[in-house]
Write a structure and sequence with these properties.
The complex is a heterodimer of chains A (216) and B (372).
Chain A: H1 8-30, H2 37-43, H3 46-56, H4 64-94, H5 99-109, H6 111-132, H7 137-169, H8 174-193, H9 200-215
Helix pairs in contact in A: 1-4, 1-5, 1-6, 2-3, 3-4, 4-5, 4-8, 6-7, 7-8
Chain B: E1 2-3, H1 5-33, E2 39-40, H2 43-56, H3 58-61, H4 65-81, E3 87-88, H5 95-115, E4 117-118, H6 129-155, H7 158-180, H8 183-188, H9 190-197, H10 213-221, H11 239-254, H12 262-277, H13 282-286, H14 289-297, E5 306-307, H15 320-323, H16 346-350, E6 357-358, H17 363-371
Helix pairs in contact in B: 1-2, 1-5, 1-6, 2-4, 2-6, 2-9, 4-5, 6-7, 6-9, 7-14, 9-12
The chains are: A mainly alpha (216), B mainly alpha (372).
Chain lengths: 216, 372
């Protein structure tokens, strides 16, 4: 069976399994603009947004689609760096495969968190529209701070389930699978501690600023 | 008039095709070009449902023509009751022509089937209840999709469309794969229903009549399509499917397509068009990104079909190219079906013996696996 995985299509699939989830995971970091960048800094860890903003600053263009293309690429680059780090740790834990296979493992299992990133960035866009539409402060607070928590909980649960399932599927012994799960829990804890999702404190600071920007 | 299997298919497929054309004109073409003239009789949605139901049930209904005829009564009756409430934007009166079209499309197959004489006697083999349930769910979800799309496009109401797709994505991505695997592709997807009901029965030569061997082989050898423990180096998903996934997400973000009303509807219509170009279900097996991450979550799902190798009589009635929408060779699987199984139960229906293909792992199989 292993010979099948050296065909051109199989080799392409192995590479795509790294880049596509990587792109999905990171693109949200780059799609902010001058109006929403503070909201994105509150929604995601600020250093990730700053990183993609720095990359975006390297190339300037007037075309709106080109700007969005560069923005998503910059975000994807930052996301890809995150995946490289997680894969390096997982590689030390898994110990039974090449680094590229650990990288594929890390990237594919991150899909639920990529969905979470996409949902949170979509929530920012919706929030800006609601602000412009004159929604009440309570409604805005609910959609900025409270509503994403349920979605985040569900998708983090799926991320951990995926790590367990993929470990089992690719023959990782049970004891080591617990360590893989531990890496996942550790990553989620660091990600949250670094500033994933808007806290009530951040929102209290941001709301007056955003209202002022939209009035002007 | 004597009606054999082929005639039965024709009696049902042409009204269904006519209904589809009326639907596309009323709900897609007119709203895009003359929104003020766009209108649709709700009975047409039931024409689609009735046509698909009869075609999906052809093995059972071909010997029971009167029963099949009664299914065509539903759009006739709905058409009469909804005479004064067509789906439209303005308050102009298109009721009579719309009602007439609906009555002609559903009346002709009703009369033909009602007065026709079945050439073959009804099959004696009892129908699997789960297959009947699947066909009902397929037809209902297709009709809901058709009604929601028509309502959203004619009334330019994005909200109803968004709610539908939100429910669709949440259930099929986050809940169903962990319970039933790739059930989306066997029970819920409107495109797969249309393929199983209509496109499979169309006899034209497809523009792409077969896929390159390399694509088929790669798809069949990736870990999504095989059961049991896999090689660490095996790709999880086929390359063609991953390649279709990327432009989707890429265009969605770069061109900001998510808030556009036509985007989810247009995507589904794109899949319909592809399904007419490729052979039956090849678009689902190799190219549809919607199914891909549902299948990824399906590894280790709670309910799955089991193949009890120790009971198999090697009759080869479950050959992948003839029975399975995802071309899984069940006899090569080690007891459980791979994640690409869509729980359509076609293999279970095709198997003439009891206990070979089951929903629960058999006792002999448990013993065999333990010994191995």
């Amino acid at each position: 069976m292993e010979n099948n995985y050296t065909t051109p299509l199989a080799r392409t699939a192995r590479i795509l399994e790294i880049f596509i989830p990587g792109y999905m995971f990171g693109k949200s970091y780059g799609i902010s603009n001058e109006h929403t960048v503070d909201l994105f800094r509150a929604q995601f860890p600020a250093f990730l947004i700053n990183g993609s903003e720095a990359i975006k600053g390297l190339v300037a263009t007037d075309s709106i689609y080109m700007q969005r293309f560069l923005a998503t690429t910059a975000g994807a680059f930052v996301g890809f760096v995150v995946i490289l780090v997680i894969a390096a740790i997982l590689h030390m834990v898994l110990r039974d495969r090449k680094y590229i296979d650990s990288l594929r493992f890390a990237a594919i299992t991150l899909i639920p968190l990529a969905v979470l990133n996409g949902t949170l960035s979509h929530a920012v866009q919706t929030l800006v529209e609601s602000l412009g539409g004159g929604a009440t402060v309570e409604a805005l607070t609910k959609s900025a701070v409270e509503s994403p928590r349920g979605t985040a909980g569900l998708l983090i649960f799926f991320y951990l389930t995926t790590l367990w399932m993929f470990g089992r599927r690719t023959g990782v012994p049970k004891k080591r699978r617990w360590v893989v799960l531990g890496v996942g829990v550790g990553f989620v804890a660091i990600y949250m501690a670094a500033g994933l999702m808007i806290t009530p404190g951040e929102w209290a600071e941001l709301l007056p600023k955003l209202q002022q920007t939209l009035v002007h | 008039m004597e009606i054999n299997k082929e005639t039965y298919i024709n009696i049902n497929k042409y009204p269904l095709l006519a209904g589809l054309i009326v639907y596309v004109i009323g709900a897609v073409i007119l709203p895009a070009s003359y929104p003020e003239k766009a209108a649709l009789q709700p009975g047409i949605i039931f024409v689609l449902g009735a046509g698909l139901f009869n075609l999906l049930n052809q093995k059972y209904f071909v010997g029971r023509l009167k029963l099949a005829a009664h299914i065509w009564l539903i759009p006739l009756i709905v058409g009469c009751f909804s005479y004064s409430i067509p789906i439209q934007q303005g308050d102009y009166d298109y009721n009579m022509p719309l009602w007439l079209i609906n009555t002609i499309i559903s009346g002709i197959p009703f009369l033909l089937l009602f007065f026709g004489k079945a050439k073959q006697s009804p099959s004696k083999k009892a129908r699997l209840k789960i297959v009947s349930a699947r066909i009902i769910v397929q037809c209902l979800t297709f009709m809901i999709y058709a009604a929601v799309s028509a309502g959203a496009l004619i009334h330019l109401n994005h909200k109803i469309d968004l709610i539908y797709w939100a429910i669709f994505h949440i259930t099929t991505t986050a809940i169903f794969p962990f319970l039933f695997g790739r059930v989306l592709c066997g029970w819920i997807c409107p495109n797969s229903t249309l393929q199983d009901g209509l496109i499979k029965n169309l006899n034209f030569r497809r523009p792409i009549s077969s896929l390159p061997k390399a694509i088929e082989e790669q798809t069949n050898s990736c870990s999504m399509n095989i059961s049991g423990e896999v090689d660490k180096t095996a790709p999880m998903l086929p390359a063609t499917l991953l390649l279709c996934w990327f432009p989707m997400f890429f265009c969605e973000t770069v061109f900001d397509l998510v808030p556009k009303l036509w985007y989810p509807v247009g995507f589904m219509y794109g899949l319909f068009v592809l399904s007419f170009i490729l052979p039956w279900r090849k678009v689902c097996a190799h190219f549809c990104w919607l199914s891909s991450y549902r299948a990824l979550g399906g590894h280790g799902s709670l309910w799955r079909i089991r193949f009890n190798k120790s009971k198999c009589q090697e009759c080869k009635k479950c050959l992948p190219e003839e029975v399975c929408p995802f071309f899984i060779n069940i006899r090569e699987q080690d007891n459980e079906m791979p994640a690409s199984c869509c729980l359509c139960f076609s293999c279970m229906e095709a198997c003439p013996f009891d206990g070979v293909i089951t929903f629960r792992r058999g006792e002999e199989e448990k013993a065999r696996l333990k010994a191995a």
